[in-house]
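cron nightly-structures :: item 1 of 1
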Amino acid sequence: MSNVISTPSADQKVELLEEQVKVGVRQVDRARVVVETQVETRQHAVETWLDHEEVQVERVPVGMVIEAVPPIREENGVVIVPVVEERLVMRTELVLKEELRIVRTVHKQLVRQEVPLRSEHATIRREEIPASPETVRGE
């Protein structure tokens, strides 16, 4: 028996196999979050002090001759508004005909009223999504 060793010729090719890996990312929904809101309305009592102002006007006759129109003034919380007229006498003169005395009175009153107040409440729950066969295989 003879051993024959053959050498490959130049036109012979040896094919080798090669594996390649491809890595990628894709989005897979596993769960979802559901947010529900509810509005609750409740009555709430509100109270506050309200001011109510009244004005009284008193006419006070004066009948005094003056040289110039007096200014509006305030004395002891009373506003005094002078009212003048011109009279023809041999000359023109100013006569303080009357004064208007204005007194303000403030009344306080406690007022209560029911007003609606709204508040919002949120409920959050997680819902699992069953895995699809593709996800289990790792595709």
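cron nightly-structures :: done
The chain has a mean pLDDT of 83.
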